[in-house]
Amino acid sequence: MSEKTGFMKALKCRECGREYPLEAKHVCEFDFGPLEVAYDYERIAGALTREVIADRPQSMWRYRELLPVAGEPTVGCQVGFTPLVKADRLAKRLGIRELWIKNDTVNYPTLSFKDRVVSVALSRSRELGFQTVACASTGNLANSVAANAASAGLEAYVFIPADLEQGKVLNSLVYGPHVIGIQGHYDEVNRLCAEIAGKYGWAFVNVNMRPYYAEGSKSMGFEIAEQLDWEVPQHTVIPMASGSLLTKIHKAYQELSKLGLVKGSGWRIHGAQASGCSPISSAQKAGLDFFKPVKPDTIAKSLAIGTPADGFYALRVMKETGGGADDVTNEEIREGIRLLAECEGIFAETAGGVTVGVAKKLIASGKIPAEDSAVLCVTGHGLKTLDAVDGHVGSTREIKPSLREFEAIVAQDQAATR
Ligand SMILES: *Cc1c(COP(=O)(O)O)cnc(C)c1O
Ligand SMILES: [Zn+2]
Q: Which segments of the chain belong to CATH 3.40.50.1100?
């Protein structure tokens, strides 16, 4: 391993292929194409085997040669390796032979998949010498930056739309970062953050650190394949905000395949959005290569990005793998949350409702054939978006502390099931 760059070779423009040093930089100077981390796969192939991975602790860092840090990670060392749950009862309800839930609602420490990207971004930020970290967030990213920065002793500024769910706001504030609410939607938050990043020279995890940050999402794909006994699933359904997670799970499968670590080919990658913010799924359904920006209006606030930075590449991945996409209404999102909770005992936030709702549609339409096997990526915990289900999940029946009153309730229930 090279002391200065680990298994990374350079930052490379996705459009023209020009290479840049491994610094805090995210766009190509020539064509404004996004920069991506390039690795030395030959050396990785010599270092990373199934046995080496199996001997390491159960965290996302067991695949560290394929993650963009030069040395050992220093932030978020316990993140990842969340359960892959076989979901037989939900499979039956959705009408598919085999179904798995990749359960990132229990990711450590802030209960969403964002801990993966933040762990990478902050570890790399430290390597590059930053003292202050920041982000533009739809909620979960702010939670994760705030928590992980606190544990690492870094100064943190998090920028969020001012109208976020109370749960998401408190889950950032408690760690003591600077929380700035912007009067506008995420795309305006993001635009402001690009200006601030330029002026203050902080490490914005999803702006100037984006090439490193985004790679953290691959760990979800690595884990899915390993947990399926080193096999890539036929279908993976992934919620899309910027579209980054979707492209990176595909990249993870490609890398494992290239390194000879997995069986399976011809996997299909499917994307899920909310109808109130569906620039990518709408373009996919219309057969377009480009999306049209939208103004978000949905209860799935964690996915509410109207101008998705990786939308173009997400569309390409779905096209290349023969995957589909769809979107669901607020009511269908709530139904998805309830289905997952009632069938599998997993309480997801709105993004999970989007994924389950879209999977249901893709199975019903045959885009995911009933005889196949699918993995649903459930990316955040329901305790963070309680407002979304409040008033939609039944209610408590109140009685006096009296056995007679309770017996009346049991009689009522028995009558109802007869
Ligand atoms: C951020 C987020 C996503 C998707 O993010 P991308 O920008 O598409 O990578 C999915 N689910 C949850 C809960 C999120 O917070
Ligand atoms: Zn370029």
A: 8-77+114-213, 84-110+217-389
